């Protein structure tokens, strides 16, 4: 088991290094002069030359990558051309909103996926039908439909923003400090975008988990457990769920990474102040350090998430480590 965990951690580091190398090369060969973009079109040639030396832009490519990797390891992803602030500072301001949105959406996806997989009642069939229809719609269309239904017609949920003071970890801070009014307001604002983000992942998780459960339920050891007189609850809890949860965990890890990638559209529609909006504003301005910084952070989240999921799977089912 220790060897398996070590190999997975080593593979994650290697993939992360490859990601930073690809992002660095694309950033180096992107059109435009980064120094002029940062200093402005009216900067003097002397100022441009001095800044190129400061940024090591005249060094060989391998040396520049070494400087970039060393700076990234210290948490320095460069300076934004648009905001003229450190990219890490910008990400620190925008990432908490995205993180809370994705966490709530992931919890919704797990809950809806479990309902999709396990409930065999009429209510479960209805939920599966609604989720399947929702998963076929593009996220922007699902978001607009949710705004029209739950905001314009029913008036149940707000359509934009985070509510109250939208800085930092709003839900976490209000929950820890016991500010229930702000927590309730923030929860109302996050429900609609989180549901839009959760529908497609819930279907993917639910379908994989449902297929795995059906396969395990027909296994010999489950029939033996029933023949011993165990109740269905005991059979499911002791012999079915643990042997079936591996594929569902794997899919959940993939979908969590996809959620971080899919927040760009959702955050723009709901005016959510996260890294999706930050990225959307950086692309038209050709703000390559910001674009590269967001790419590296999202890639790192995706890699780390799937590594952790692999480790959890190995702990849940030791056969995976073998």
Walk me through the structure.
The protein has 322 residues and is mainly alpha-helical. It is 77% helix and 0% strand. It contains 13 helices and no strands. It has helices spanning 2-28, 34-39, 45-54, 61-73, 87-118, 122-136, 139-153, 170-177, 180-217, 220-227, 232-269, 275-282, 288-316. Helix 1 runs antiparallel to helix 13 and helix 7 crosses helix 9 (180-217). The model has no long low-confidence stretch (mean pLDDT 78). Its main location: membrane. Keywords: Cell membrane, Membrane, Transmembrane, Transmembrane helix, Transport. Residues 95-313 form the ABC transmembrane type-1 domain.
Helix percentage: over 70%
Q: What's the total helix number?
A: 13
Q: How would the global form be characterised?
A: globular
Q: How much of the residues is beta strand, in percent?
A: under 5%
Radius of gyration: 24 Å
Summarize the entry for a quick read.
This protein has 322 residues and is mainly α. The protein is 77% helix and 0% strand.
Please outline the helices and strands.
Elements: H1 2-28, H2 34-39, H3 45-54, H4 61-73, H5 87-118, H6 122-136, H7 139-153, H8 170-177, H9 180-217, H10 220-227, H11 232-269, H12 275-282, H13 288-316
Helix pairs in contact: 1-13, 5-6, 5-9, 5-11, 6-9, 7-9, 8-9, 9-11, 10-11, 11-12, 11-13, 12-13
Key terms:
mainly alpha, 13 helices
């Amino acid at each position: 088991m220790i060897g398996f965990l070590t190999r997975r951690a080593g593979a994650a580091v290697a993939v992360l290094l490859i990601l930073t190398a690809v992002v660095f090369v694309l950033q180096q060969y992107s059109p435009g002069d980064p120094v002029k973009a940062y200093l402005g079109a009216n900067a003097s040639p002397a100022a441009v030359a001095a800044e190129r030396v400061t940024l090591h832009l005249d060094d060989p490519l391998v040396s520049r990558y070494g400087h970039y990797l060393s700076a990234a390891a210290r948490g320095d992803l460069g300076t934004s051309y648009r905001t003229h602030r450190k990219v890490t500072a910008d990400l620190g301001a925008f990432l908490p909103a995205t993180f809370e949105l994705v966490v709530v959406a992931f919890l919704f996806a797990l809950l809806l996926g479990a309902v999709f997989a396990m409930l065999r009642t009429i209510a479960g069939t209805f939920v599966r039908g609604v989720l399947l229809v929702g998963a076929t719609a593009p996220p922007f269309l699902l978001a607009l439909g949710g705004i029209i239904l739950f905001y314009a017609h029913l008036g149940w949920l707000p359509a934009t923003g985070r509510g109250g003071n939208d800085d930092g970890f709003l839900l976490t801070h209000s929950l820890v400090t016991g500010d229930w009014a702000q927590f309730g307001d923030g929860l109302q604002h996050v429900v609609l975008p989180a549901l839009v983000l959760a529908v497609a992942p819930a279907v993917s998780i639910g379908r994989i988990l449902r297929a795995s459960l059906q396969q395990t339920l027909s296994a010999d050891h489950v029939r033996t457990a029933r023949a011993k007189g165990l109740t269905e609850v005991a059979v499911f809890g002791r012999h079915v769920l643990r042997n079936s949860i591996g594929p569902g965990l794997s899919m959940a890890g993939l979908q969590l990474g996809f959620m971080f990638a899919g927040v760009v559209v959702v955050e723009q529609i709901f005016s959510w102040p996260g890294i999706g909006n930050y990225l959307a504003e950086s692309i038209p301005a050709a703000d390559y350090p910001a674009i590269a910084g967001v790419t590296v952070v999202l890639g790192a989240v995706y890699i780390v998430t799937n590594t952790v999921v692999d480790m959890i799977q190995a702990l849940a089912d030791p056969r995976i480590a073998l």
